[in-house]
Every structure is written in structure tokens, then in C-alpha cells.
């Protein structure tokens, strides 16, 4: 056989089919046909393995289901005891809080009685000077015009996956927020400051214990109101402070609620009796073994 030029066809050169034509004629890869043939040849042995695998899977699923049922029953059985324990703790906290409030009211009554007896024993000018000193120190009830700064936690955030609400940590009122507000009010000329009815003195503390805020070791719940008695321009001075600007920024970005309003005839209660420490001269004797100066020591309890 000759080619178009009249020559002979080269040995080994044959017809090469078109790729698309071959794809349509044999759409299935030959490897699949070989695998099907091997499965058919295996016959019952292959089917036995498949049935064994299915049986093992069924047993595994049944075991997992049984364990889940046991875990659920265990959780359900323990839930009443947990609820009872939690309810008992809540009842104890409520009872202790009521007892504390009752004792505080009794202490205030006795303090007023002591003040009346003292004023009766002192001369008029001395009693007036003592009352002024107590008011400045926070140990007497005071009243007057001032400002109230109200802080509240931002709204809860919704989890996009579960749809449940979760705490907005960035929009939560912190202990340092109340510290900053109180210090800003003092700097603006406040004469007396209280947080949710707890009078602040020079020895007061505002700190956090977990998610709770304590003022002089007394837990407070939001919203928090910082009340201050001071000059007429106290509210305007606080609004223009850096602390107020920072809180407004947090409010705009994370939802923390802040409200500043002027108030007339505020009444701030007296603070509790402070636990003071007094210095006393050390007894004469040889120097201390650790080299410390024994000339001054303190009493009044542990540090």
C-alpha cells in the first residue's frame, strides 16, 4: 500500500482514533471493569466480609447509643441534686444579706443615738465642728445637690451558631470603671460620693471578685449609680472629663450604658466605722534579730 506520494507506508504506523470518539465509545475506564470482574469472581467471600463489616458497624452504633442513654440518665438523675444545692446556696446568700441589712440598720440607729448623746454632752460649737469633720470623713449622713452617674452593662450578644445569648464582655461595667468615675468626681470638686448607697471614704475599696463588684467588701448588682454632692458645675465638669469621654466611646462601640444627670437634694448615708491602726512605741530592748527598726510598730490586726 502506497501513501499519497506513491511511496510505501512505514512499518508500525497505523490508524490512531480520535480522542473524543474513543471517549464516547468507551466512557468507562477499563479499570472499573476489571474491579467488577474481580468482585464477581470473589463471590460469597466478598459478601461475607461486607455482611461482617455491616454487623460490626451496627454493634458499634448500638454500643454508642447505649452509652449516650446512660450518660443522659446520669445527668438527669444529678440535675435535681444540683438544683437543690444551688437553691440552698441562693437561700443562704439571701438570708445572710437580709441579716447584714438588719445589722446595718441597727448600727445606724445606735450611731444616731450616740451622736445625740454626744451633742448633748458637748458645747454647741464643739458639736458643730465634730459634725463637720464626720461629714468630711464620710462618717455622717449628708445631703445636698449634686450629680448621679448611672452605668449599666451592655445588651447580651447573640451567638450566630447556637442563637443563644451570651455575655457581652466588652460592654460590661468593671470595677475600674467605677473607680475612674469616683476619682473623676473627686477631682471635679465632689464633697461626698457613694456607689449604690455605699459611702466612699479615704479607706474605701472598689474591687472585683469574679463577675461581682465589691465596695468595701459588700457585693453590688447593676445598674450602678455613683452619686456625688458638690458644686453646681459638678455635672458639667464630669461630662468634659477624659473618663466620661472614654465611657462614651465604650458605649458607642460595645453598648455600655452611661447616663449623667444633675440631682437635687441627694442624701448620702454614712459609711461604716473604719478599722484604724495606731502606732505605738516599741518596748526598750535589744535590736531585732532580722535587723528591722524596732522603734515603731503597728497594732490593730494583720496587714
Overview of the molecule:
The structure is a single chain. By secondary structure, the protein is of the alpha+beta class. The protein has a domain at about 145-270: Alpha-Beta Plaits, CATH 3.30.70. The protein is about 50% helix and about 20% strand. The chain is built from seven helices and twelve strands. It has helices at about 20-25, 30-40, 45-120, 125-135, 175-185, 235-240, 240-255; strands at about 140-150, 155-160, 165, 190-195, 200, 205-210, 210-215, 220, 225-230, 255-270, 280, 295-300. The strands form four sheets. It has a five-stranded antiparallel β-sheet with strand order 5-4-9-1-10. A three-stranded antiparallel β-sheet has the order 6-7-8, with helices on one face. Strands 2-3 form a two-stranded antiparallel ribbon. Strand 7 and strand 8 form a beta hairpin. The longest helix has about 80 residues, at about 45-120. Mean pLDDT is about 80; it is low at about 1-10 and about 295-303.
Amino acid at each position: 500500500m502506497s501513501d499519497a506520494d506513491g511511496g510505501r507506508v512505514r512499518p508500525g504506523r497505523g490508524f490512531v482514533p480520535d480522542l473524543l470518539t474513543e471517549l464516547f465509545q468507551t466512557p468507562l475506564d477499563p479499570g472499573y471493569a476489571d474491579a467488577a470482574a474481580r468482585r464477581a469472581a470473589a463471590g460469597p467471600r466478598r459478601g461475607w466480609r461486607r455482611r461482617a463489616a455491616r454487623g460490626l458497624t451496627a454493634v458499634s452504633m448500638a454500643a454508642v447509643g447505649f452509652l449516650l442513654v446512660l450518660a443522659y440518665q446520669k445527668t438527669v438523675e444529678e440535675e435535681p441534686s444540683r438544683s437543690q444545692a444551688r437553691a440552698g446556696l441562693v437561700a443562704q446568700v439571701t438570708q445572710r444579706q437580709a441579716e447584714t441589712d438588719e445589722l446595718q440598720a441597727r448600727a445606724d440607729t445606735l450611731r444616731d443615738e450616740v451622736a445625740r448623746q454626744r451633742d448633748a454632752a458637748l458645747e454647741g460649737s464643739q458639736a458643730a465642728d465634730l459634725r463637720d469633720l464626720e461629714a468630711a470623713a464620710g462618717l455622717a449622713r449628708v445631703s445636698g445637690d449634686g450629680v448621679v452617674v448611672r452605668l449599666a452593662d451592655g445588651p447580651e450578644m447573640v451567638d450566630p451558631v447556637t442563637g443563644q445569648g451570651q455575655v457581652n464582655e466588652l460592654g460590661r461595667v468593671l470595677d475600674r470603671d467605677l473607680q475612674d468615675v469616683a476619682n473623676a468626681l473627686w477631682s471635679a470638686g465632689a464633697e461626698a460620693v457613694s456607689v449604690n448607697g455605699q459611702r466612699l471614704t479615704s479607706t474605701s475599696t472598689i474591687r472585683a471578685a469574679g463577675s461581682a463588684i465589691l465596695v468595701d467588701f459588700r457585693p453590688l448588682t447593676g445598674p450602678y449609680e455613683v452619686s456625688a454632692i458638690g458644686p453646681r458645675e459638678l455635672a458639667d465638669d464630669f461630662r468634659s472629663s477624659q473618663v466620661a469621654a472614654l465611657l462614651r466611646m465604650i458605649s458607642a462601640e460595645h453598648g455600655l450604658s452611661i447616663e449623667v444627670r444633675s440631682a437635687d437634694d441627694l442624701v448620702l448615708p454614712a459609711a461604716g466605722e473604719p478599722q484604724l491602726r495606731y502606732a505605738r512605741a516599741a518596748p526598750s530592748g535589744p535590736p531585732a534579730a532580722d535587723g528591722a527598726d524596732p522603734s515603731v510598730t503597728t497594732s490593730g490586726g494583720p496587714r
